[in-house]
Write a structure and sequence with these properties.
about 220 residues; alpha+beta; Jelly Rolls; Arc Repressor Mutant, subunit A; 2 domains; four-stranded antiparallel β-sheet; disordered N terminus
Length: about 220
C-alpha cells in the first residue's frame, strides 16, 4: 500500500496527454479539427475568444505586448499542449497573439464544453489551475525584464517581433512611438544611430532590417 504523502505528482495526477486520450465521447464529439499553415495567425488581440485550442501536431508561438509597449515572444507550445483557457475563465483577459510556427493540426473546444469536461474529469481542472499559475508567473518575470530595457532595446525589440510576425512592412514611426512609449525625437535619434551602425534602414517610410542576427542577440538577452 502506498500512502499519498509518498506518491509523486505523476502518480497522483495524469498529464494532459493522458487526460486527452481518455476524453469521454460526450466531450470528444464536440472537438472541431482545424488545420493552420505555417506563419498563419490563429488568434490576435482584437479577437474575442471563448475557445480552448488543443495542439495535436505542430508548434505555435505566443506574443504579448508589455507595459512599455515592447512586443515579446513569451512562449512556444507543441503537441498536446493548449492555449485559450485564460479567456474562458476571465472575460476581461486580453487575447494574446498566437501564430503557427509550423503547419499545425488543432482541435477546438468551446468554453462551455471545457467546463463540462472539468466537471466530468476534476483532474483536468487541477491541471489547468497548475498550468495557469505557472504561465502567470512566467509572464510576470517577462514584464519585469521588459522594464530593464533601454529605449533603443525596446525599439529594436518591437521591430524584431514585427519582422518575425511578418508585419514589418506595416510599421510606421507613429506605431513605434506608441508601442515603445518613445517620443518621436528620441525615436528619430535611435533610427539614425541604427542606420549608421548598419543595423537597419528607414526609407520611403518603410523599415528594412539588415542585421537580423544582431537585433536577435540584443532582444533575446531579455
Amino acid at each position: 500500500m502506498v500512502h499519498i504523502g509518498q506518491m509523486t505528482r505523476k502518480e497522483i495526477f495524469m498529464d494532459f496527454k493522458e487526460l486527452f486520450n481518455r476524453t469521454p465521447n460526450i466531450i470528444s464529439n464536440h472537438f472541431v479539427e482545424k488545420n493552420y499553415k505555417e506563419d498563419v495567425f490563429i488568434l490576435d488581440p482584437n479577437m474575442k475568444n471563448d475557445i480552448l485550442y488543443i495542439i495535436l501536431q505542430g508548434r505555435v508561438e505566443i506574443y504579448k505586448q508589455g507595459y512599455n509597449g515592447s512586443i515579446v515572444n513569451i512562449r512556444e507550445y507543441g503537441p498536446f499542449t493548449y492555449f485559450g483557457e485564460m479567456e474562458i475563465f476571465n472575460n476581461d483577459y486580453k487575447t494574446l497573439t498566437v501564430k503557427a510556427k509550423t503547419n499545425c493540426k488543432i482541435y477546438q473546444l468551446s468554453g462551455v464544453k471545457l467546463k463540462e469536461w472539468i466537471r466530468i474529469e476534476p483532474e483536468l481542472g487541477i491541471l489547468i489551475i497548475e498550468e495557469l499559475t505557472k504561465r502567470l508567473a512566467e509572464t510576470s518575470k517577462i514584464r519585469l525584464k521588459l522594464t530593464l530595457m533601454t529605449i533603443k532595446e525596446r525599439v529594436l525589440s518591437s521591430l524584431y517581433y514585427h519582422y518575425k510576425l511578418g508585419s514589418l512592412n506595416t510599421v510606421t514611426k507613429k506605431m513605434l512611438c506608441n508601442e515603445t512609449a518613445t517620443p518621436i525625437r528620441s525615436l528619430n535619434r535611435i533610427i539614425n544611430d541604427c542606420q549608421k551602425e548598419g543595423i537597419l534602414e528607414y526609407d520611403n517610410k518603410h523599415f528594412t532590417i539588415n542585421k537580423i542576427e544582431d537585433i536577435k542577440q540584443i532582444v533575446e538577452q531579455f
